[in-house]
Amino acid sequence: MSQEILKKVEDLCRKPEVSEFAIGDTVNVHCKILEGDKERIQIFNGVVIARSGGGTREMFVVRRIVNGEGVERKFPLHSPKIARVETVRSAIVRRAKLYFLRDRVGKKTRLAERRVERKVETEAAKPAKARRGRKAKKAAREQAKKEA
Hints:
Layout: H1 2-13, E1 26-35, E2 38-52, E3 59-66, E4 69-76, E5 82-89, H2 134-147
Antiparallel strand pairs: 1-2, 1-5, 2-3, 3-4
């Protein structure tokens, strides 16, 4: 009985649309800030270094560097204080938690970017490309031998 009630309450609190992002992604978290009677949105930009929990209790940690100092902030995924989460870029990672980034400084904190797969154009639709380099020269020599 209590499990059913808990599930109903969680379904009511859960956001209908949650943007997809993964560990290692650089994200913009749009947070709602109350200042007196006015509400504004402030963007927190950084790398997602951890996700934890499940259901309505899911949390994620975003890390960024401000004035040479590391700042981490933990956000509840389904909070009404979060307007939206935008993925700026994706990275290739091999871990579930990126806590090792805390010890790194400068360019060592950068992660390799994951390329997004795009539609492959057909050979006829591709524009002619000027070939350069050793491979192109070798191909030109082989073509000349065939013609001779």
